[in-house]
From TrEMBL, chain A:
Spans through the membrane: 9-30, 67-91, 103-124, 136-162, 183-205, 240-259
Localization annotation: Cell membrane
Membrane topology term: Multi-pass membrane protein
Primary residence: membrane
Organism: Paractinoplanes deccanensis
Keywords noted in UniProt: Cell membrane, Membrane, Transmembrane, Transmembrane helix, Transport
Family membership noted in the UniProt record: Belongs to the binding-protein-dependent transport system permease family.
Record-linked InterPro entries: MetI-like (IPR000515), MetI-like_sf (IPR035906)
Domain of life of the organism encoding this protein: Bacteria
Native organism taxonomy: Bacteria, Bacillati, Actinomycetota, Actinomycetes, Micromonosporales
Name under which the protein is recorded: Sugar ABC transporter permease
Pfam families (UniProt xref): BPD_transp_1
CDD domains, A to Z: TM_PBP2
Length: 273, 282
């Protein structure tokens, strides 16, 4: 079972073939992004005279610089808020068996079932009346609330499995509840915080529906809406569009490749939560 | 000593402002003819819902939504499980393949969908590979819906794989080896030993893919825009179109209520079925 047999070799060959099929779209993506518009040969033929012009053109036209800054800002601020408020809320929710605690937990868990589509239209009206339509700060507010149920769910599940001994020792020593939370509970939550951070950051960064609704027609864009706007504008100029797609995914792929172990474990980590 | 209740306040306020209160107002608007702007609107009872039954586009969209969700759930998890079994072996490329196969799952769905719109186009790479077997994948009403499923599965099969893999790796090696020594066949070993121990991974995977499938929006928006005609419209794309291009906010929110009910039914069914399954396994 632990030896590299003929069957292992057959499996290896098969899996590599599967890997190539999965990676094929990426080959075409790069192949067309470096191609001159005048080159109309088959999209799978390797590009012989590559050019970088599509990238400079896409960068100039798509406003991706500003969109990247907005996406980073929205993701960092809203994920920080979500993690902070959810961890704080999870502490009493996991530790108290009182009726208010169980009821509050159930109400928040209702959010796991409610699709955002239901809240999105009434919110549209509220945001318009508040004059926040077209502002990235409205997105920060939304994600801070939208991601609460899932994040709280992860924290409460994790915290319930942890012993109370350290917290009790701290409170006997005269620590206030907040001090206990900050210096005793929060450090113990680190493993699940990594999971929650990864899942929330990916969800917020990639979200398209929310900014499509609330940022449409404004000059403040996040990466997904900037890309969609660019495709709408340059309809069939695929060399340029593909260059823009590559620019938009480079930051994500760079972070993924640098932190692949934590990120993959983060995604799988919900399993233990 | 239990921590004070007000620790829950910041989370609760944000949740109430963004989700709970607007959802509650949404349910109310579903029974009105609100157009999104006019503060004067009428309470019209169940008319939005009865209109929906006579609206061919809406009925079709509900059907597409269910079909897409089921197809994605079955195919994505089937492939994800096979990939996990393949990677959870002695092959030398297992780490490389794990990183490669999972990569699409972190990339923005709208971006991968635009990539695929070109790949599946009449002059796209897929047809270039298939030659005489090429088709108008996204322009054919009978095929377009399945292409959306293909794109989603390509992107998220690696996600299912990673969760199955975590489940597989939590199974102690000795259990396999004991069964192998006993002469149990590979299929039998999988069905009676691996499958029950994988129950938590199966639960999470099915939950994620079915709810993701029901709410699907980005891929449909980018690949087909709901077309050709309305052949690939889902509830989510119809909500968007009815509200923002037709100004029928009340009707659109009624569709969102239907979406909520479908998500709730799917969650409840899975919860009942899978918790029984997990109990039987332990």
């Amino acid at each position: 079972m632990n030896r590299y047999t003929k069957r292992t070799f057959a499996l290896e060959t098969l899996m590599i073939a599967v890997g190539i099929v999965f990676a094929f779209p990426v080959y075409v993506l790069v192949n067309l992004a470096i191609r001159q518009p005048s080159d109309t040969s088959s999209p799978i033929r390797p590009t012989m005279s590559p050019t970088f012009a599509n990238f400079t053109g896409a960068w100039r036209e798509a406003g991706l610089g500003g969109a990247l800054i907005n996406s980073v800002l929205v993701t960092v601020v809203s994920v920080t808020i979500v993690l902070a408020v959810s961890a704080l809320a999870a502490y009493p929710l996991a530790r108290s068996a009182a009726r208010w605690s169980r009821t509050t937990f159930l109400v928040i868990m209702l959010g796991l079932v409610l699709p955002f589509q239901l809240a999105s239209l009434p919110l549209y009206q509220t945001v318009r009346d508040l004059g926040l339509l077209g502002s990235v700060w409205s997105l920060v507010l939304f994600y801070s609330g939208l991601q609460v149920p899932f994040t709280t769910f992860l924290y409460v599940g994790f915290l319930r499995a942890l012993p109370r001994d350290f917290e009790e020792a701290a409170s006997i020593d005269g620590a206030t509840p907040f001090t206990t939370f900050r210096y005793v509970v929060l450090p113990m939550l680190k493993p699940i915080t990594v999971t929650a951070l990864v899942l929330n950051a990916v969800a917020v960064w990639n979200d398209f529906f929310t900014p499509l609704l609330y940022l449409s027609g404004s000059d403040q864009q996040t990466v997904p809406v900037a890309v969609a706007g660019f495709v709408g504008q340059f309809v069939s100029d695929w060399n340029l569009i593909f260059a823009a797609l590559i620019i938009s995914i480079i930051p994500v792929l760079a972070v993924y490749l640098a932190l692949q172990r934590s990120i993959i474990n983060g995604f799988a980590g919900g399993l233990k939560g | 000593m239990t921590p004070p209740w007000w620790f829950t306040l910041p989370a609760l306020l944000l949740f109430a402002f963004v989700v709970l209160i607007p959802s509650g107002r949404g349910v109310y608007y579903a029974f009105t003819d609100w157009d999104g702007l006019d503060p004067d609107f009428a309470f019209i009872g169940l008319r939005n819902f009865t209109d929906m039954l006579g609206d061919e586009d809406a009925v079709q969209a509900i059907w597409h939504t269910v079909l897409i969700a089921v197809a994605i759930t079955v195919i994505q998890n089937g492939i994800g499980l096979l990939l996990a079994l393949g990677v959870n072996s002695m092959i030398k490329t297992r780490n490389l393949l794990r990183v490669l196969l999972f990569a699409p799952a972190v990339v923005t769905p709208i971006v991968t969908a635009y990539l695929w719109r070109n790949l599946l186009g009449p002059d796209g790479a897929v047809n270039a590979v298939l030659g005489p077997w090429g088709r108008d994948w996204l322009g054919d009403p009978g095929l377009a819906l399945w292409m959306i499923v293909v794109v989603v599965v390509w992107q998220f099969a690696g996600y299912s794989m990673v969760i199955f893999l975590a489940g597989l790796q939590s199974i102690p090696r000795e259990i396999y080896e004991a069964a192998a020594i006993d002469g149990t066949g590979a299929l039998r070993r999988f069905w009676s030993i691996v499958r029950p121990l994988l129950a938590p991974a199966i639960t999470i995977n099915l939950m994620l893919s079915i709810i993701g499938g029901i709410k699907l929006f980005d891929q449909v928006y980018a690949l087909t825009g709901g077309g050709p005609g309305h052949a690939t419209d889902t509830i989510s794309t119809l909500i968007y179109k009815d509200a923002f291009t037709l100004g029928e906010f009340g009707y659109s929110i009624a569709l969102a209520v239907v979406l909520t009910i479908i998500v709730a039914i799917a969650s409840a069914a899975q919860y009942t079925f899978l918790s029984r399954n997990e109990k039987a396994a332990s």
